[in-house]
Amino acid sequence: MSLMLIDAAGLYFRAFYGVPDSVKSPDGQPINAVRGFLDMSATLIERRRPARYVACLDLDWRPAFRVALIPSYKRHRVAADGGEEIPAGLSAQVPVLLQVLGAIGLATAGAEGFEADDVIATLAHRDPEACDVVTGDRDLLALATDRVRILYTGKGVAKLEDFGPDEIAAKYGVPASAYADFAALRGDPSDGLPGVAGVGDKTAATLVQNFGSVENIIEAAATNQPGFPSGSAAKVLAAREYLGAATAVVRGRTDVPLPPIDDELPSSPADPHGLIELVDRYGIERSVNRVLNAIQNSR
Question: Nearest to residue 162, comparing CAs of 172, 154, 171, 152?
């Protein structure tokens, strides 16, 4: 029974910015993120036909354990009140979306102190079945195996990039199992990870190809082993402290304490009366029906 794991925040941010804010409820509230999320979920279920589905949540978008390792982690996204900088028009829609998913019977999962990446990594790690991970976060490419596919939404759900180990090796020049090492070396400004100064994608891939893990790369630099592009050994050694912490920040945790989840696609809405009330209040009948039809057709 195949499993689909959704990076919920990634999808509702994409929906919020991708669907016009002129899409409103009957009483004038913005509902574009809810509509977009539901429509994208329907498309994903229609295409991939999973038997199970979990929308994975950021109950802590900037976990303390990552900040302790790299203080700059997501610092640029911290709002004046210390929380995440998120448009008011979107933050008001997230509780509505969770209500709708619950009424339909689509599972959600999150854990205090952990990001959705960690929830996804844990669920993918502990599940024996085929798994699709839907995300716009390239760090999750590290999860790809013969069993786990990464459906990358960087170009939108209509143009999903489907990554397994072969596709990752072809595009980035590194095995999926070493993607976190590659990502730590090159950095990611969107997450506040500086990377190694002067090391881009090509050099990072070469170092991983030649030496493997970040730990091996540091050791090779310290012992003057051949195989470093010109000047790269000194750059790696200058960033040794950062590199010692970075891979643990990049990798999703696989030990998140999650209870058993009833993640099977529902045969009928979990709360039909509540769903009708939500549909009427927010004017989302078409999108909800798309999801319900997709679920029925996936069986």
Answer: 152
pLDDT at site 1: 81
What is d(CA 174, CA 168) in angstroms, rounded to the nearest whole number? Answer: 7
Distance CA 169, CA 183 (A): 14
Residue 24 binned pLDDT confidence (cut-offs 50, 70, 90): very high
- Which residues make Cβ contacts (< 8 Å) with residue 123, sequence separation at least 6? 3, 5, 54, 56, 109, 131, 258, 261
Which segments within 35-106 are labelled E, that is strand? 52-56
Q: In this model, does residue 299 exceed pLDDT 80? A: no
62 Cβ contact list (under 8 Å, min separation 6): 73, 74, 77, 78, 84
Cα–Cα distances (Å) from 221 to 163, 226, 246, in that order, read 31, 9, 17
pLDDT at 7: 98
Helix (H, G, I), strand (E, B) or coil at 274: helix
Q: How many CB atoms lie within 10 A of CB 18?
A: 14
Q: Which two tokens stand for residue 83?
A: 């929380």
Report d(CA 35, CA 33) in Å as an integer: 6
Tens-digit pLDDT profile for residues 175-234: 999 999 999 999 998 899 999 999 999 999 999 999 999 999 999 999 999 989 889 999
**pLDDT tens digits, one per residue of 148-165:** 999 999 999 989 999 999
